[in-house]
Amino acid sequence: MTATTPSTHETSGRLPERRTAVVTGAGGPAGIGRVTARVLAENGWDIALVDINEAGLAAVAEELAAAGHTNVIAVPTDIASEASVAALFARIDAELSPVVGLVNLAGIASPTPLIECGVAEFERVMAVNVTGSFLMLKAAAERMIPQGVGRIVNTSSITAFDGGGTFSKGVYATAKAAVVGMAHGGARELGPYGITVNVLAPGPVDTEIMGGRLTEERKASMSAGIPLGRVGQPAEIAATIAFLFSEGGGYFNGATLQVDGGKYMH
């Protein structure tokens, strides 16, 4: 990669008319990635759908095609594998417009306390949440730097700040805290090239990451400590990402946006 000279001109960093957003974790049947891909496509982005779940990706691609979004590819990828990530971006380079956006949504949770966690489980959680986010950020940034513009969003969790709850405990908190530090480093190092790197820290959201969709009973239990009295919805997270990917979100850099209904305040 040949880095361009950092630009500090006040009009730098404007989004090009044709641009691609890469969305990891896009294959979940009830995931944030699925909704985010749709919202970004509606906002004019070409979309690269990324997940290890090939069948799930195909379903999302079909949904987007049915809605008239044709500049979409679905690429089954192991984001924790450098070779798999390289193959992904080779396809994007060949088939879509330049990469301007990256949403690192793929992740796995862990209900295991730190003192009970084996090394294999710890490394698996770190591989998907941290190594995967790093490899994706690195590959995307290499393509954004010559363009002088980019939007990267890493997904953390309020677990990174409160240490975990009834389902996701210390191992997951460790991984999600690392994602925040990575975003801070990226924001400082990539900002001079017109690339923003921010963090989303959702609270409980009605997705399948916590062992399946939430039952009404679980929703009520998890809502007890939330001032708004409910769990979040994927569409609310997707809308926040869409804002960060907009022209109006261009001065957010190194920020952590808690989307948690007020569950964790500091």
Q: How is this structure best described in words?
A:
With 266 residues, the chain is of the alpha/beta class. It has one domain (20-257): 3-Layer(aba) Sandwich (Rossmann fold), CATH 3.40.50. The chain has 8 helices and 7 strands, in the order βαβαβαβαβααβααβ. A 7-stranded parallel beta sheet has the order 3-2-1-4-5-6-7, sandwiched between helices. It is globular, with a radius of gyration of 18 Å. The N and C termini lie far apart (40 Å). The mean pLDDT is 90.
SSE pattern: EHEHEHEHEHHEHHE
- Radius of gyration of CA atoms, rounded to a whole number: 18 Å
Q: Biggest sheet, strands in spatial order?
A: 3-2-1-4-5-6-7
Number of strands: 7
Which class do the helix and strand fractions yield?
alpha/beta
Shape: globular
